[in-house]
Amino acid sequence: MTSPQAPAVELAGVAKTYRSGTTAVRGLDLTVHEGEFFSLLGPSGCGKTTTLRLIAGFEEPTAGEVRLHGTRVTGVPAHRRDVNTVFQSYALFPHLSVFENVAFGLRRRRVPRGEIAARVGAMLETVELTGLERRRPRELSGGQQQRVALARALVNRPRALLLDEPLGALDLRLRQAMQVSLKRIQREVGLTFVYVTHDQGEALTMSDRIAVLNDGRIEQVGTPREVYERPATRFAASFVGTSNLLAGEVAEVAAGRAVVVHGADGRIEVPVRGAVARGRRLELAVRPEKISLGRARPGGGLCGVRGTVTEVVYLGTATNYNVTTSAGADVVVFRQNAASADEVAARGDEVWLSWEPDHSYALETAR
Amino acid sequence: MKFPARRRFSPLRLYTLLLIAWLLLPIAVMIVFGFNDVHGKQNFRWEGFTLRWYTHLFAKPDLTTAALNSLTIAALSTAMATALGTPLGLALARHRFRGRGTATAVLFLVIACPDLVMGASLLSMFVTFDVPRGYPTILAAHTMVATAFVATTVRARAVSLDPSLEEAAEDLGATAWPRFRLITLPLITPGILAGALLAFVLSIDDFVIANFTSGTTLTFPLWIWASTRTGTPPQVNVLGTLIFAIATALAALAGIRGSRTQRKPASRAPRSADAVGR
To answer: Which of B163, B156, B206 minimizes the C-alpha distance to B184?
Structure first.
């Protein structure tokens, strides 16, 4: 790996409107560093695949520019860009053997015969497909096809690999196994991965950094931990993991924290950035696993909200409590079934929800 | 294919055998009467076995000419229709352009139009523009009809292809021509072959359109039609038998090749390294 700060892929104000009039991407600014596993995460139709196609060169942006390793590539056709793509459908050439599929890019670049054989062989070994060289794609399982697609792209030693939901067609078990091996391969070859997915679990598991996309815009860019623990927007909070959204009026602001009143007696302290006016309505979020249940009002500077248990869902390793707060918000509390397996509350019980002030976060109000 | 052989009698088995027999009966009659030792003009009654018609196959020069006309017209019109129809079918499948709907409709019209109407209108067109009828006009008519068939089969094949295949080839460094030659062309080849086969069969079989556009030129069907008034010689049966035999051999060859690629393709890819050469 080279210096971690060298940008592999840069998007500057990139927008794409199709001739049909649909706008897929509305001005993206993004920097993917060399050697980074970078995910574009968002629901279908958020523009993540279009973004990938803009980098690959299958689409040209209607505004802004794409730079690969510092060089502007606007107008450079896909076959001259030093990136390779793993397609969602794999797009393996059905009439060619596994070997020929993987060798395709090397032959196009007139790599000498002996070197082709060596590189294809080594690559098939990396993706654990040795011995299947002569098979046709349709004779392989889904997972094997996926690895051929990966090998076909990687063997060219591109400066960045673009992956468009490559695990989408696999079943859950295989997907989890492939997540691990993808991450391993990425580490081994030290290559920049730009990974498109709608699966937040996948993005959190594999990525160095994630960009959360919605409606052609970036909602947040950060490490998996940042995106999960500190979602910047309402969308990011609800799309990545489960979030409990609570709202209330700001009663006081001091030392980077706002005190929000929720319902008749709920009191929530939440870190805020910049100035927040008193009396303003503020929306905030708390993850289900950060909340504790209790009978009494919590003390010691903890946030506290009163509510009624509406449902208790036993999950084996944990129990989910659905609670409706005194102000009418629905909250999910996730509690590990640790040493004491007893339920701390039953349906219909009055409870106090409490959590550390640092575990809730204010959301940017709608743009 | 993989079902265990069932020796037991079943109504379905009997039905299938009867159906095949019914389909093959006219062909069997044609073959048998090619060996008929006839002495009169009519070849309708069995008069004994002979190989005379095989040894004197080309004894009737005008029949030979007609058969050659049919074969060369079929071959040439198939070649031209394939060359014209393949890009047309690809364009219709891949691109959205002005006149695409019209082009599709016209292709459909050519296929759906009754031969009589097609033949009659072609004749009036050739007469109007004072084109002398003969070999070239039959060839032109057959090429036109066959182009529609080739374009349609190629289009059907091309729309079923994953568009990301070509993108993948581009992504791997292939420019336009290698993309076509190495990826698109091999993948639409079944469509091209199906269209070419249809074109050839339709041309060699055609009587109606040729009857309108032939002038004084005779094709095999036209010659047979003319001969029925005086008596069809057994050489016609022999030529028919030979054409049938060649067609059967070709179909069997294709079948064997096809089943081999499907059953154990792993065993027949040894030289694939050269298949995609530079």
So the answer is: B163
Q: Is A107 within 8 Å of B277 when comparing Cβ atoms?
A: yes
Query: Cβ-count burial of B86 within 10 angstroms (0-12 exposed, 13-18 middle, 19+ buried)?
Result: buried
Which H or E run includes B200? helix B185-205
Contact check, Cβ <8 Å, B276/A96: yes
A242-362 maps to CATH 3.10.20.30: no
Span A98-124, pLDDT tens digits:
999 999 999 999 999 999 999 999 999
Give residue B11's Cα distance to chain centre.
34
A16: its two tokens: 């794409």
Sign of the Cα torsion B95, B153, A91, A155 reads negative
Please report, for chain B, the start and end positions of each structural domain, with discontinuous segments joined by +: 59-224
> Does the CB of B187 have a partner CB in chain A at under 8 Å?
yes
Residues B156-182 have a mean pLDDT of 93
Does B23 reach chain A within 8 Å, measured CB to CB? no
| Cβ–Cβ pairs < 8 A, chains A and B | 86
Question: How far is Cα A42 from Cα A199, in angstroms, rounded to an integer?
Answer: 8
A95, A110, A152 ranked by CB distance to B278: nearest: A110
Task: Tell me if residue B176 falls in helix, strand or coil.
Answer: helix
- % of chain B surpassing 90 pLDDT: 62
**Cα of A62 to nearest chain B Cα, Å:** 20
Instruction: Please report, for residues A248, A262, A274, A325, the alpha-carbon distance to residue A280 in angstroms, rounded to integers and kept in the order given.
Output: 8, 13, 14, 20
Those residues with Cβ within 8 angstroms of residue B18's Cβ, 6 or more apart along the chain or in another chain: none
Counts of helices then strands in chain A (DSSP H, E): 8, 20
The 3 state secondary structure assigned to B4-35 is: CCCCCCCHHHHHHHHHHHHHHHHHHHHHHHHH
Domain-by-domain residue ranges, chain A?
A: 7-238, 242-362
Q: CB B172 to CB A84 under 8 A? A: yes
Angstrom distances, CA of residue B22 to CA of B171, B191, B236? 55, 30, 22
- Which architecture characterizes domain B59-224 according to CATH? Orthogonal Bundle (1.10)
Distances B139 to A138, A145, A162, B121, B204 between C-alpha atoms, Å: 42, 47, 52, 16, 11
Residue with tokens 């009624």: A308
The answer to whether residues A354 and A298 touch, using CB atoms and an 8 Å cutoff, is yes
Q: Grade residue A1 by pLDDT with cuts at 50, 70 and 90.
A: very low
By Cβ distance, the residue of A87, A107, A109 closest to B276 is A107
Topology of the domain covering A7-238: Rossmann fold (3.40.50)
Interface test with chain B among A107, A116, A138, by most B beta carbons within 10 Å = A107
Structure tokens at A250: 């700001």
Q: Roughly what angle, to the nearest 10 degrees, separates helices A172-189 and A142-154?
A: 20
Rounded to an integer, the average pLDDT of A23-32 is: 92
pLDDT score recorded for residue B59: 87
Torsion of CA A106, A110, A111, A112, to 10 degrees: 130
CB–CB contact B171 A79 (8 Å): yes
